[in-house]
Amino acid sequence: LDNLLENATKFSPDAGEVRAEMRLLTARPDQIPPARWAAVRSQRPESSVMWITVTDHGPGIPDSEKERIFERFYQTPSGRAVRHRGVGLGLTICREIVKAHSGVIWVADNPSGNGTVFNVLLPGAFRASPEATMAASSSVPSGSPSVVS
Questions:
Q1: How far is Cα 142 from Cα 94, in angstroms, rounded to an integer?
Q2: Contact 51/32 with Cβ under 8 angstroms?
Q3: SS3 for 6?
Q4: Distance between CA atoms of residues 74 and 145, nearest Å
Q5: CA quadruple 94, 98, 99, 101: dihedral positive or negative?
Q6: Residue 83 CB contacts under 8 Å (≥ 6 apart), including other chains
Q7: Which of 136, 12, 1 is nearest to 78 (CA)?
Q8: What is the pLDDT of residues 100-139, one digit of tens each?
């Protein structure tokens, strides 16, 4: 999650918005492709699924590169032009971590216009009791894209 938020912040315009959301699902919403849902539900069909999204308003990712960005050392042309860019391992690591938890990760276009939505589905999720739930907050330097959760 940290890497997805860092990437979204890096590719968003100054003072842009990055949104992270988590939902506990028992049924597939229309926004989740049936094959992605089936891949996660086949592990534990009786359990809930955690759907995590990280949305930005950056330059977006061309359709032809949406799978390649998860390859080791691969960077899109717009990614190579970003200041303080990495080496192209972050999304590969994200994919491997999600896969180790029997989940799936993919990227889609931001339906509200520019940018992307990174989606993560993790099986076997459960709702924590109110006593176990903690609120998290972080400070974002002024002038940087804000993170809304």
A1: 27
A2: yes
A3: helix
A4: 25
A5: positive
A6: none
A7: 12
A8: 999 999 998 888 778 899 999 999 866 666 666 554 444 4
